[in-house]
UniProtKB/TrEMBL annotation:
PANTHER family: SULFOTRANSFERASE SULT. It comes from Clytia hemisphaerica. This is Sulfotransferase. Gene3D superfamilies: P-loop containing nucleotide triphosphate hydrolases. Signal peptide: none annotated.
Length: 321
């Protein structure tokens, strides 16, 4: 078994990323007009990025010569340019017209987000996230073990961008909570029209106008389907030379697919961890409706949720694992 990774400033990153990835990311200068798509890896941030691209462009799909990773870039991605006075780093984000939609998987203490920026946090249930992350890491040759091995890493927060639960908790505890819109992968899959409207209302401007146009929303939903995104993968996902031929970045994405991979013991272990961390939260209630095996310990009063408004939640992390 091999588990290829690197650690930059206490953040676990994939081995293929540049050694100065985090340095470049934290050195990025954001604007107050920037909006960010944030999420743990495999939660659906690429899906949201394309939905917003389609929404802004009136439902028109991405065309030849365009690249989603350049139009809605990840912070920290770019290239070094050699000049007579030396080498410097050019962020893809700095080549995008303002106002920008940007992406990051980084924890909040490392993410270069302007205090006035709007933040869309996309969350996916930990069961399907774990399986999707496992499949992707195998597809790009970052992990060669079986799922049992990978599950142990995931359960103990030793996978891409550190612990799944900490990622949620730390972002929810940001001081700029009023600027965060929380959505879930599951709600987006089941109620795309409602979530697209919520995204448009949150971002305002052309996004809001187009999210209230039935024809445009219909086109956005059609072109952001799994079938169409797989067909346009070469325009949506930056090529990775480590990817095994024939293995798409886009997996089937069905809710509850973890059942094909998880053992009963693994379901129990992750359910217990989830209950300790998220008991009483909107996330837990949403995923319970999907039939996911979330068990709540009603005697545990260490985790709770405050509802500030329809879009904002605050999660208090328990002290036990």
């Amino acid at each position: 078994m091999t588990h290829n990774y690197q650690i930059q400033e206490d953040v676990i990153l994939r081995q293929y990323l540049p050694k100065d990835f985090l340095e470049n990311a934290t050195g990025f200068q954001p604007s107050e007009t920037d909006s960010f798509i944030v999420g743990y890896p495999r939660a659906g941030s690429s899906w949201v990025a394309y939905i917003l691209y389609l929404l802004r462009n009136g439902g028109e799909p991405i065309g030849i010569g365009e690249r989603l990773w350049e139009d809605v870039p990840e912070v920290g991605v770019g290239r070094h340019v050699q000049q007579p006075f030396g080498k410097y780093f050019v962020h893809l984000a700095d080549l995008v017209t303002h106002p920008r939609i940007l992406r990051t998987h980084l924890p909040p203490d490392k993410a270069p987000v302007h205090p006035k920026s709007k933040i869309i946090y996309i969350s996916r249930n930990p069961f399907d996230t774990a399986v999707s992350l496992y499949n992707e890491n195998r597809a790009i040759n970052e992990f060669s073990g079986n799922f049992d091995d990978f599950f142990t890493y995931f359960l103990h927060g030793q996978t891409d961008y550190n612990d799944y639960f900490d990622h949620h908790v730390e972002w929810s505890n940001r001081k700029a909570m009023q600027h965060i819109l929380w959505i879930t992968y599951e709600e987006l899959k089941q109620y795309p029209r409602a979530i697209i409207k919520k995204l448009g209302d949150y971002l305002g401007g052309i996004y809001e106008r187009n999210a209230n146009d039935d024809y445009i929303v219909k086109e956005v939903i059609a072109h952001s389907s799994l079938t169409e995104m797989k067909a346009s993968e070469h325009l949506l996902i930056q090529p990775n030379p480590n990817r095994n031929n024939g293995l798409s970045f886009f997996q089937d994405g069905n809710i509850g697919n973890y059942n094909k991979t998880f053992s009963k013991q693994q379901v129990k272990q992750l359910s217990e961890r989830f209950s300790r961390e998220f008991s009483g939260t909107t996330f837990l209630n949403t995923w319970k409706k999907q039939g996911l095996p979330i068990y709540v310990n009603n005697n545990n009063n260490n985790d709770y949720i405050n509802h500030n408004n329809n879009n904002v939640i605050t999660i208090t992390k328990s002290n036990h694992r």
